[in-house]
Design brief:
The structure is a single chain. By secondary structure, this protein is an all-alpha fold. It is elongated. Helix content is about 70%, strand content about 0%. Helix 6 (about 155-185) runs parallel beside helix 8 (about 220-245). Among the domains are: about 1-155; about 490-559, no CATH class. This is Pentatricopeptide repeat-containing protein. It comes from Hibiscus syriacus (Rose of Sharon). Pfam families: TPR_PATROL1. InterPro entries: Munc13_1, Munc13_dom-2, PATROL1_C, unc-13_homologue.
C-alpha cells in the first residue's frame, strides 16, 4: 500500500512540475509580447515607419500565443478557473489594444502600411473573440461578460475616418486648384480646336485621377464611401460652373430701363445730313471691333461662346465620368456594389443641373449683350430715331449678320441653334422695345406701318438665311408677338383709343364715365394688354392721340 501511495504522490508531483513549467512558459511568452508592446510604444515617436510592419507581426504573434494558450494551457488551468482562455484573450486583447490606440492617435494620413496594421488588428480581434466565445459555451451567460471586457478596436471605423480625411484633403486641393486656374483663365476660344477652356480639361483630369486613386486604396468599403467622394466632386464641379458664368450678366443686365411715358413730338428728333453722317461714323467705328478676341476682355462675345462651349463639354463628360465610376466600382471587391451602382445616375446631378442652367444663362447673356450692348448704337440709338424712312433696320441687320457669323464659327454645334435662337428672341424684343418704349425721339404715323413691317421681314429673313439658318417653325414661334402687335400701328387713332378704353375697363373695372387708370408696364406686350395699346398711342404721330393723352393722363411731350 505504501508503494502505491508513493507512486501516486510521484505522479501528482510530476503533474505539478509540468503545470509549473507550462505556466512559466506561458508567462514567459506573455512577457515577451508585453516587451514588444512596450518597445512599440517607445518607437512611436522615434520612427513610426519602422513600427508599422512590427504592429502587423505583433498581431500575428498575439494570435499564435492565444491559440497556443487555448490548446495547451487552458485544459490544465480549468482546475483553478472556469474560463482560463477567456481571461487570457482579454489580457492579450487589452495589451495589443493599448499599443494600437497609441499608434492610431499618431496617424496623420492614410498609407498602405497603416491599412496593413489595421487589417491585422481586425483579424486579431476576430480570432480573440472566437476563442473567448468557444471557451465560454458552457458558461451561464454564454461568454457575454468576457466579451464586454474586450472593447472593440473599431479598425473599420478608423479606416473609414482615414479615407474620409483622404477624400476631404483631395477635394480641398481640387477646389484650390479650380480657384487658382479660373483666375488665370482668359476664355480664349482659340486655345484649342474644340474651342473650350483648357481649365475644364484640367479639372476633369484631376477628377478622374481622384476617382482612380480612390479605387486603388487597399480597402473593402469603396461602395460605402464612394458617395462622399462623388458628392464632393459634384460640388467642386458645380463651383467651377458657377465661376465660369459669374460676372457674365443675365438678360435683365443688358435690357435698358424703360423711359417714362410721354407724348411723342411730331417733328424729327435729329433732322439733317450732319446727324446721319455722325451716326454712320459711329457705326463704322464700332463695326471694326466686332468679333475680335481681346485677351483683356473676358466677357466679349467670343469669350462668352467659349464659356458656353466649356459648360457643354463638362455636361457631356459627366456622362462619361458616371460610366467610368460605375465600371471602377464594379471591379472593386466592395460589398453592396449593385445598390450603390444603381444610384450612380444621380451622382453628379448638381453639376448636370448647373450646366443646363449655366448654358441657358450664358446663351441669354450673349444674345442680349449683342443686341442691347454691342449693337445699341444701331438699335437703341439709331433705329427709327427721327424720320422712320431715314433710320431703318438695315444697319442693324448688317452688323447683326457679322455677329451671327462669329457665333456660328465659335460656339459648339450642339448648342449653336440655342444661342442663335436666343439672339433672334433678343432682336425681336429689341425691335418691340424700340416701337413701344423708344422714348420721345421716336414717332410713328399710319403711313410708317408698311416700312416697319418690311423691316421686321428683313430681320426674320436674316435668321432664316434662305433655309440655311433657323427652322421656319422656330422663327414663326418667336415672332408671333411682334406680328400680333404690328397691326396696331396700322389701326386708326380713334379705333385705337376705343380699344384702349375697353381693355382698360375690362382689366381694371373702370366705368366709361370714370377717370381711366394708368395701366402699369408689365413688359408682356400684347395687342389686348392696355399698357401696350397706350404705348402705341404715345408714339402715334397725330393730333388726336396727342389730345387724348394730354387730357386723360396729362402726359408731357418730353421727360
Amino acid at each position: 500500500m505504501s508503494t502505491v501511495r508513493i507512486e501516486r504522490k510521484s505522479t501528482l508531483l510530476t503533474r505539478e512540475l509540468i503545470l509549473t513549467y507550462d505556466l512559466h512558459s506561458a508567462l514567459l511568452s506573455l512577457r515577451q509580447i508585453m516587451e514588444k508592446v512596450k518597445s512599440s510604444k517607445r518607437s512611436t515617436n522615434k520612427n513610426q515607419q519602422n513600427e508599422l510592419p512590427f504592429l502587423s507581426s505583433l498581431a500575428q504573434d498575439v494570435t499564435t500565443l492565444a491559440f497556443s494558450e487555448k490548446a495547451i494551457f487552458s485544459p490544465i488551468l480549468k482546475r483553478w478557473h472556469p474560463l482560463p482562455a477567456g481571461v487570457a484573450v482579454v489580457t492579450l486583447h487589452s495589451c495589443y489594444g493599448n499599443a494600437l490606440k497609441q499608434f492610431i492617435s499618431d496617424i496623420g494620413e492614410l498609407t498602405p502600411d497603416i491599412l496593413q496594421v489595421l487589417r491585422a488588428a481586425e483579424k486579431l480581434e476576430k480570432d480573440l473573440v472566437q476563442i473567448a466565445v468557444e471557451n465560454s459555451v458552457d458558461s451561464e451567460d454564454g461568454g457575454k461578460s468576457i466579451i464586454r471586457e474586450m472593447p472593440p478596436y473599431e479598425a473599420e471605423s478608423v479606416v473609414s475616418s482615414l479615407v474620409k480625411s483622404w477624400i476631404k484633403t483631395r477635394l480641398d486641393r481640387m477646389k484650390e486648384w479650380v480657384d487658382r486656374n479660373l483666375q488665370q483663365e482668359v476664355w480664349d476660344p482659340r486655345a484649342n480646336k474644340e474651342r473650350f477652356a483648357p481649365s475644364a480639361v484640367e479639372v476633369l483630369r484631376i477628377v478622374d485621377e481622384a476617382l482612380e486613386a480612390f479605387f486603388l486604396l487597399p480597402i473593402s468599403i469603396h461602395a460605402f464611401l464612394l458617395p462622399d467622394l462623388t458628392y464632393g466632386i459634384d460640388r467642386c464641379l458645380q463651383h467651377y460652373i458657377s465661376k465660369a458664368k459669374s460676372g457674365c450678366g443675365t438678360r435683365s443686365s443688358f435690357v435698358p430701363s424703360m423711359p417714362a411715358l410721354t407724348r411723342c413730338s411730331r417733328r424729327p428728333k435729329f433732322p439733317g445730313v450732319f446727324k446721319k453722317k455722325e451716326k454712320f461714323q459711329r457705326v463704322q467705328s464700332r463695326k471694326s471691333q466686332v468679333g475680335t478676341t481681346n485677351g483683356n476682355d473676358s466677357f466679349g462675345i467670343p469669350q462668352l461662346c467659349c464659356r458656353i462651349n466649356t459648360l457643354q463639354h463638362i455636361r457631356t463628360e459627366l456622362d462619361v465620368l458616371t460610366k467610368r465610376t460605375i465600371a471602377l466600382l464594379g471591379s472593386s471587391e466592395s460589398p453592396h456594389v449593385d445598390n450603390v451602382a444603381s444610384g450612380m445616375g444621380k451622382a453628379f446631378e448638381l453639376s448636370a443641373a448647373a450646366c443646363l442652367e449655366g448654358i441657358q444663362q450664358l446663351c441669354e447673356a450673349t444674345a442680349y449683350k449683342v443686341i442691347f450692348h454691342d449693337l445699341s448704337h444701331v438699335l437703341w440709338d439709331g433705329l427709327y430715331v427721327g424720320e422712320v424712312s431715314s433710320s431703318r433696320i438695315k444697319p442693324l441687320v448688317q452688323e447683326l449678320e457679322h455677329y451671327l457669323e462669329v457665333i456660328s464659327l465659335t460656339v459648339h454645334d450642339r448648342v449653336r441653334t440655342r444661342v442663335i435662337t436666343e439672339v433672334m428672341k433678343a432682336s425681336f424684343d429689341g425691335f418691340l422695345l424700340v416701337l413701344l418704349a423708344g422714348g420721345p425721339a421716336r414717332a410713328f404715323s399710319l403711313q410708317d406701318y408698311e416700312t416697319i413691317a418690311e423691316d421686321f421681314r428683313f430681320l426674320t429673313d436674316l435668321f432664316w438665311s434662305n433655309g440655311d439658318g433657323l427652322p421656319v417653325d422656330l422663327i414663326e414661334k418667336f415672332s408671333t408677338t411682334v406680328k400680333a402687335i404690328l397691326p396696331l400701328f396700322h389701326t386708326d387713332t380713334d379705333s385705337l383709343i376705343e380699344q384702349f378704353k375697353y381693355m382698360t375697363a375690362e382689366s381694371y373695372g373702370s366705368s366709361p364715365k370714370s377717370k381711366l387708370p394708368l395701366p402699369p408696364t408689365s413688359g408682356q406686350w400684347s395687342p389686348t394688354e392696355p399698357n401696350t395699346l397706350l404705348r402705341v398711342l404715345c408714339y402715334r404721330k397725330d393730333e388726336t392721340a396727342d389730345k387724348f393723352l394730354k387730357k386723360t393722363y396729362h402726359l408731357p411731350k418730353k421727360f
